[in-house]
Design brief:
mainly alpha
Length: 124
């Protein structure tokens, strides 16, 4: 337990920056930020992909991701410390999940178009 509250120079930008926050919290926030940047990078480069199935799978993955994040923050709100930041995060994550879910599943999932060229296998 004492290791979580120590000041560590590896994860903080200055030696005394981590005095008030636990080491684990700072590292988790930075790792989550790196994950979000990597996800954004992947999606930025995948925007030119014309495969509709691939786009549907990306929407489904982001929908599940935001639903799970909202549920995790909601659980933290009711089991750990209560804070306004948690409620803001819950609202934002729920809105993002609803946006991806409605885009993927509304109108029977036909908002994302799949166009295929006729080949020998699908001509009959």
């Amino acid at each position: 337990n004492i290791l979580l509250w120590q000041k560590v120079d590896i994860c903080s930008s200055t030696p005394h920056h981590a005095a008030a926050l636990p080491f684990l919290f700072i590292c988790v926030c930075r790792l989550y930020g790196c994950l979000r940047l990597a996800c954004g990078w992947i999606l930025w480069h995948a925007r030119h992909v014309d495969d509709g199935r691939f786009r549907k799978h990306i929407c489904e993955a982001l929908f599940v991701c935001y639903v799970l994040q909202a549920m995790a923050v909601l659980r933290a709100q009711f089991t750990d410390r209560h804070s306004l930041i948690n409620w803001i995060a819950i609202v934002i994550l729920t809105i993002l999940a609803a946006a991806y879910g409605s885009f993927r599943f509304r109108k029977g999932g036909n908002l994302i178009k799949i166009y295929e060229l006729p080949t020998g296998g699908n001509l009959l």
